[in-house]
Amino acid sequence: MHSSLTAIWLTVKLATLVTVLLLFIGTPIAWWLSRTRSWLKGPVGAVVTLPLVLPPTVIGFYLLLLMGPHGPVGQAMESVGLSRLPFSFAGLVVASVFYSLPFVVQPIQNAFEAMGSRPLEVAASLRASPWDRFFTVALPLARPGMLTAAILGFAHTVGEFGVVLMIGGNIPGKTQVLSVKIFDYVETMQYEQAHWLAGGMVCFSFLVLLLLYSGRKKSAWV
Length: 222
What we know:
The protein is mainly α. It contains eleven helices and no strands.
């Protein structure tokens, strides 16, 4: 029981931290993708969307190579005296940010595109600076999309398995998140414990989807 609670707490901590980081990272990316006409929009959009089509184990494998002792990130961190990212909580955070990025960027990008250019043009005519237009016009209008992005980013991070197993392994109290704990229970044929955790994740996923659809229905009425 104690190990299950530890896995749940570690999962909540990971998902919360990743969601906050994704909102800071994903919002400017989504803004740029929604406004730019550069030829780089296609390649950048494709890179952001890659986690939607690639198997998690493929992403985890290449991130492991990138952050491992022979990878450029691993060697750079070792050269400045920092610990390596694989098989650590920090490694889980980095991997989760990359893997959940499209679930945050796309809803925010859609919200920015849906508001059109008229509100920004009106603000510009009132001599609002680009920063003012972004923070006082664009962000408030995109709030529903950002809320959807936060919920999806959090829920997707909670449900990760392949990437976190490849990067973090199965270290109790350190990298053993909820999905890995369920796998551990099944491997050791502790089906009752696996059932309780898996059932909890089913209920959590249902509530997340119910919240999303209820929010969309209210937005449609408004």
